[in-house]
Backbone:
């Protein structure tokens, strides 16, 4: 508002710069989204033999039980994961916000740490506990209890829901903390008992947040590749099916993998449309005159409430603890020996320093791109509403509905041939990090800007500061915290990215998550654990920085 | 020479005409208020003077300099914002120093000017506070000090008190007035609060739908409104659309509405069959026997006791009429539903053209 009207002279110059940003935004969307996705789309309609337009892939998908089964598997896993996440998440949210639970911050931190760690590490840890020779299985066998088979749907649902439930618990807790106490008091004043008040006032008010979180869980579970790949066994879901088809089809035409990819995108689109529809409906944000009371429980009730909260969180963090423990165990090749050593770490730093360096290098380069370009595009979208900006806004959100596996397939298909050959380079991996994270960065920059009163910029201008100086001395310092904490989150997710990069790496562009995955497959649990521990530490440090220096609550991590 | 001159200013937002043919001259050191309902264009006019909007037509002069093409940051106007717009990432001191640093004053000069500005808004000792530790009133004082510190050619106030509570609003408006007078900075003040405008201003421009309705001193605006909008927007007024009877007697004509009858001055009513007669509640007298006074009767609907006066709402011929009883403690309150008679002096009756709403007769300009 302020700056575009600040002056005629500045207006034309400003317009040129911001036009360039908008043009750049369209270029990014066209080259790195539309082009690869259109390629996938095209391949799904090409006959393998004749290379002519044909519906044969789609006919195959809809008629063969092999493909359809993966679709139903995906739905089943996503629904069950969402359900269990709600079962863990809602009580945790309610107890930690309404009752005094000691160590609530610790609980939230641990939950988020589990949430942010690479998805497949949790799965692999459950294998070490409950797999064929898992130590928990052996322990239970010793006392005569046979635990159910962990490979397959049970393992996927277990690992997924224990990883993703914080989406529901944190979003619900956020809503519970911002309900005006007077509303519940009004209900009681009108004669409702507290149970009735909960179901007729409290629950309906937080329901939009619960369903919002649930849809995110559904989406994450639907597009998750690492967990079903590691713990799924022969139980194929859409992302693993696409991956298997693609890696076996690679010499031929990726017709079936493309078809499965399009199905995945369609599923994700339905979820996103649902989510948009839900969030566009009434939200009960209040002015928060009266914060809700946090009740002090007494005696047995307090013990039970604590037990429940700690059980949920520790159950979900246990896989991480197990991994850290194994990283310090003595090994000989794939075999664990009694006693402790730093052998696994030594191996990493001496045998694969390049992999470690790659992970840091790629993610840092990607974050610089994400933060700078995302902020500029966010500014364009928030402060310069014109036709081009309005068109760009939804286009930039496309990566939300493109699972990593699909993006990986698209990139390798599109950038393996002229005019733009990127296959085998570091850039193709950096660019997938960049594209996957860009919508979060744009959204967060735009939402930070929406919270900055345009009058502040006008005040700067009015006091004699030119638009450029005002942006530098007023707008940017106010955005800074949000930009940096967003960048750190982008860095963590990039460090932990597997589903797209596993399709794109070559020997020289190996990253930590890929190496962990390959080590797990080969049975080298020791080094896999040590590498995973490195990723946990990195994730933990990043979270600590965001919490400590940017004063953002745990909700940042799920809102992103 | 006038400090600010605005000539033929026009501004459109899409199809909406936000300002049409605005002409103003504001004297040096004057406290000038733009008063009107929301959407009347008062804030648009203020922001156009500040340079945040650019007019489609017309000229703005400050101290005789044409500033149409001067960008906002070079206009040297000090704006006080409705929502304070105090920089949240800077201390009180840095906020007030912001404009001075842009102007490249030395450290000593900045210190001196900031201290003086903070002193004049009674915020000495708050230099190192951050805005989140200040109340709304204190934040607005910082906003005022920050705008004053740069010694602007004109201070622009954009409804600066509307976010404060009632008591603080009254306190602050007196303070703003005192500071403005002591520094003698020309000021333009935007408000929708007519009481605030009457108290604080040297002159007021009443605006509606992008058009200036009337410009004048507060007492002039109140007692001599030039059209029905101004009469209605400033203060409380009764307006009756009445038929005029033929013929004048002693310079007076008789106006009627059903059984209601009122003698009004004949001046300016020549050739008219209809008129709007208006009178303010406080100009109503208790019914006596004096000649030249119109006695009217209404049924009492509600009584609002307001301390110094009691306001009666009467109903007659389907018309609601509001009258004030002065020193209400000393009279007996009539019961609701009873007939109350009252007198309106012909001299305190204002006449308007029912078609155009323009003032006619005695007191009409143009």
Residues:
């Amino acid at each position: 508002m302020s700056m575009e009207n600040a002056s005629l002279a500045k207006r034309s110059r400003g317009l040129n710069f911001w036009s360039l940003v908008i043009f750049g935004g369209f270029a990014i969307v066209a080259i790195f989204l539309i082009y690869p996705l259109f390629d996938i789309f095209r391949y799904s309609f090409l006959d393998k033999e004749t290379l002519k337009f044909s519906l044969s892939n789609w006919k195959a998908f809809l008629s063969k039980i092999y493909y359809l089964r993966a679709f139903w598997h995906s739905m089943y896993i996503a629904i069950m994961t969402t359900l269990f996440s709600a079962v863990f998440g809602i009580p945790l949210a309610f107890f930690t916000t309404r009752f005094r639970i000691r160590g609530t911050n610790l609980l939230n931190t641990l939950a988020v740490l589990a949430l942010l760690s690479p998805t497949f590490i949790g799965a692999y840890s459950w294998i070490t506990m409950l797999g064929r020779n898992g130590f928990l299985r052996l322990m239970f066998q010793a006392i005569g209890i046979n635990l159910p088979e962990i490979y397959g749907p049970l393992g996927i649902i277990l690992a997924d829901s224990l990883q993703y439930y914080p989406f529901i618990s944190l979003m619900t807790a956020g809503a519970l903390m911002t309900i005006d106490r007077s509303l519940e008091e009004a209900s009681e004043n009108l004669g409702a008992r507290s149970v009735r008040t909960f179901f007729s006032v409290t629950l309906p008010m937080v329901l939009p947040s619960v369903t919002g979180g649930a849809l995110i869980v559904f989406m994450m579970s639907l597009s998750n590749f690492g967990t079903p790949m590691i713990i799924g066994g022969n139980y194929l879901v859409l992302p693993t099916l696409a991956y298997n088809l693609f890696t076996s089809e690679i010499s031929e035409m990726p017709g079936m993998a493309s078809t499965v990819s399009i199905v995945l995108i369609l599923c994700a689109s339905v979820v996103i449309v649902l989510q948009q529809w839900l969030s566009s409906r009434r939200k009960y944000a209040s002015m928060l005159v009266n914060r809700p009371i946090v009740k002090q429980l007494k005696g047995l009730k307090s013990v039970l409430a604590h037990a429940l909260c700690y059980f949920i969180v520790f159950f979900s963090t246990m896989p991480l603890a197990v991994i850290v423990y194994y990283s310090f165990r003595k090994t000989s090749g794939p075999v664990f020996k009694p006693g402790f050593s730093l052998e696994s770490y030594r191996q990493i730093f001496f045998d694969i320093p390049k992999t470690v360096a790659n992970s840091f290098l790629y993610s840092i380069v990607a974050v610089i791109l994400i933060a700078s370009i995302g902020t500029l595009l966010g500014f364009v979208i928030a402060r310069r509403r014109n036709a081009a900006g309005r068109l760009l806004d939804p286009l930039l959100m496309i990566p939300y509905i493109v699972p990593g596996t699909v993006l990986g397939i698209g990139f390798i298909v599109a950038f393996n041939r002229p005019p733009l050959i990127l296959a085998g380079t570091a850039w193709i991996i950096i660019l997938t990090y960049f594209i996957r994270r860009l919508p979060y960065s744009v959204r967060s920059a735009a939402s930070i800007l929406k919270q900055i009163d345009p009058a502040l910029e006008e005040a700067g201008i009015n006091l004699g500061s030119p638009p450029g100086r005002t942006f530098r001395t007023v707008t940017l310092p106010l955005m800074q915290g949000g930009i940096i904490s967003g960048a750190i989150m982008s860095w963590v997710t990039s460090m932990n990215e597997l589903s797209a990069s596993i399709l794109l790496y070559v020997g020289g562009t190996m990253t930590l998550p890929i190496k962990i995955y390959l080590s797990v497959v080969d049975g080298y649990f020791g080094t896999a654990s040590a590498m995973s521990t490195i990723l946990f530490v990195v994730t933990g440090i990043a979270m600590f920085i965001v919490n400590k220096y940017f004063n953002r609550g745990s909700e940042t991590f799920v809102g992103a | 020479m006038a400090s600010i001159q605005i000539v033929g200013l026009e501004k459109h937002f899409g199809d909406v005409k936000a300002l049409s043919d605005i002409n103003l001259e504001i004297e040096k050191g004057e406290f000038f208020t733009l008063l009107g309902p929301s959407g009347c264009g008062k804030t648009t006019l203020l922001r156009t003077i500040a340079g945040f909007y650019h007019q489609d037509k017309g000229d703005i002069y400050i101290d005789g300099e044409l500033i149409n093409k001067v960008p906002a940051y070079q206009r040297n106007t000090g704006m006080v914002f409705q929502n304070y717009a105090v920089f949240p990432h800077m201390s009180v001191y840095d906020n007030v120093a912001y404009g001075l640093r842009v102007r490249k004053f030395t450290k000593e000069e900045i210190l001196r000017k900031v201290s003086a500005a903070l002193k004049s808004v009674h915020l000495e000792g708050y230099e190192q506070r951050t805005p989140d530790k200040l109340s709304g009133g204190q934040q607005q004082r910082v906003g005022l000090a920050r705008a004053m510190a740069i010694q602007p050619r004109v201070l622009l106030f954009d409804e600066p008190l509307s976010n404060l509570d009632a008591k603080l609003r009254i306190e602050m408006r007196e303070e703003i007035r005192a500071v403005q007078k002591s520094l003698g900075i020309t000021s333009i003040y935007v408000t929708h609060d007519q009481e605030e405008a009457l108290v604080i201003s040297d002159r007021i421009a009443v605006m509606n739908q992008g058009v200036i309705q009337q410009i004048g001193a507060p007492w002039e605006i109140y007692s001599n409104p030039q059209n029905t909008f101004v009469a209605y927007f400033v203060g409380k007024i009764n307006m009756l659309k009445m038929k005029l009877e033929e013929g004048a007697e002693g310079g007076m004509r008789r106006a009627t509405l059903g059984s209601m009858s009122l003698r009004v001055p004949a001046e300016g009513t020549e050739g008219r069959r209809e008129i709007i007669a208006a009178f303010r509640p406080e100009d109503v007298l208790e019914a006596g026997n004096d000649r030249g006074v119109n006695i009217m009767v209404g049924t009492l609907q509600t009584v609002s006791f307001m301390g110094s006066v009691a306001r009666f709402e009467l109903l007659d011929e389907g018309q609601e009429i509001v009258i004030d009883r002065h020193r209400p403690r000393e009279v007996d309150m009539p019961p609701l539903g009873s007939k109350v008679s009252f007198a309106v002096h012909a001299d305190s009756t204002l006449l308007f053209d029912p078609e155009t709403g323009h003032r006619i007769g005695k007191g009409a300009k143009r």
Q: What stands out?
A: The longest helix of chain B spans residues 166-183.
